[in-house]
Specification:
L-fuculose-1-phosphate Aldolase, 7-stranded antiparallel β-sheet, alpha+beta, 7 strands
Length: 236
């Protein structure tokens, strides 16, 4: 992928974060990676979304060194880089402070799969990281934020659970592309709101039965998926 094309996609993804009301002010950021070139494009730090221009996008290498751009990259860049280094299949990351997903992160509670809307996204609960230690915050706050996400995903498949809640902080989502990562952020916020409201009605609510969760997920993403339209040359 040409750098210019990736910059445009990441710019549009950041504008989508604002358009979908997943952020206010300068909160949050989105990025995209080109692994063949070893570069990441990310939002600049502290620039309001309504002032964000294509030329503001910052290009860094996988060690965080700026290689193109006049502005400082997002302060969360080290967290993004940690995820790109370990989650090899992802191509884009979105971090927001969307209201309901952040409520769960601040309450330090995972989002259980309560219904089929969630199961269409992931048949598993949305994981919650542990809290960072004082030493981790003082040493490398943003980098260690990425590391506790990676730690939480030991034994898990990032593309099957494309989201995480950082305890006391907020959500990160990812996807195969930057635009997919922000779509997953939008879906995460919706299922977080549904779960929050469902618990208001029934505080003793349990997860959706496993066989229903599995069915809804596999009909979209399984080997014999049949949800949606056939692509040319394929059968569903």
């Amino acid at each position: 992928m040409k750098v210019a094309k990736l910059k445009e996609e990441v710019w549009k993804t950041n504008l989508d974060i604002y358009k979908y009301n997943l952020v206010i002010s300068t909160w949050g950021n989105a990025s995209g990676v080109d692994r063949s070139k070893g570069i990441v494009v990310i939002k600049p730090s502290g620039v309001p979304y309504n002032n964000l221009k294509l030329e503001d996008m910052v290009v860094v290498d996988l060690e965080g060194q700026v290689i193109e751009g006049e502005l400082k990259p997002s302060s969360d860049t080290p967290a993004h880089l940690e995820l790109y280094k370990v989650f090899k299949q992802i191509g884009g990351i979105t971090h927001t402070h969307s209201e309901y997903a952040t409520i769960f992160a601040q309450a330090r509670r995972e989002i259980p799969c309560l219904g089929t809307t969630h199961a269409d996204f992931s048949k598993e609960d949305i994981p919650l990281t542990r809290m960072l230690t004082k030493e981790e915050v003082e040493e490398d706050y943003e980098g260690n934020t990425g590391k506790v996400i990676v730690e939480r995903f030991a034994g898990l498949k990032p593309l099957e659970i494309p989201a995480v809640l950082v305890a006391g902080h907020g959500p990160f989502t990812w996807g195969k592309t930057p635009s997919e990562s922000v779509e997953n952020s939008l879906i995460l916020e919706k299922i977080a709101k549904m779960a929050f409201s469902a618990f208001q009605i029934n505080p003793e609510l349990n997860r959706l039965p496993e066989y229903i969760r599995k069915k809804h997920y596999q009909r979209k993403y399984g080997a014999d998926a049949y949800y949606g339209q056939e692509k040319k040359g394929e059968k569903k």
